[in-house]
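Page 42, continued from yesterday. The earlier attempt failed because a stray header line got pasted into the input along with the sequence. Redoing it now with the clean sequence only.
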Amino acid sequence: MRKVDCRFSDFLAASRRIAVFVMIAALFAVSGRLQAQAQSTVTASDSTATRVMACTACHGEQGRGSGDDYFPRLAGKPPGYLYNQLVAFRDGQRKYPPMNYLLAYLPDTYLREMADYFAAQQTPFPAMPKTNVGAQVLALGKKLVLTGDEARHIPACVACHGVSLTGVAPDIPGLLGLHSKYISAQLGASRYGTRIANKPNCMQTLTSRLSEADITAASAYLSSLPAPANPAPAPAGSLKLALTCEGTETK
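This time it went through. Structure tokens are written below.
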């Protein structure tokens, strides 16, 4: 039985490696000027839409999101945020091997082009699975998202991500249309320092004050919210942020 388990484990590991290499090949195959397909007169257009096909394989067509818990929606997020995350994956600040490998040799200009492409997409939000947490957990999540916890110096999510939670241009992301497991994983990664942003790191300052229960509750509440009427991020400078990004609250 152990031999069967071992072989199956090896098969899964090999499959994952193959998937990574396929994604890498797809990205570089469609980047730059595409060559004529072998034994065919049909060629793909040299456009950003074709060059980001490796991204949409996981993040959905036009970056609209998918049914996978851990592949987030990219469409409509502020371009500065998307660009910063692409750079973080390329330079190893964010750790996820498929993304690290895909972006390892791409220049800043290409990453900015990708970010601008997904930021410009306005696609329907994916349907989120119904939350399976209790009413008390959702109530705590709602409190943290909408009003925060003053006693623990935890500002509300809306205080930085906008009243509609669609983000703020140019680099604060929206929080809607994301699976609760993804939100929870990213908050936890920030809390424990495995997701590192360029300094000053606002989110690590904030998430260090959150408990596991807080993260579960906020994630569940955010994923339970409907798609916004207007998915566009709030304009730059339209919101006085709750944190200065130096670890202290603004006055």
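Notes: The chain has eleven helices and no strands.
Reminder to self: strip header lines before submitting.
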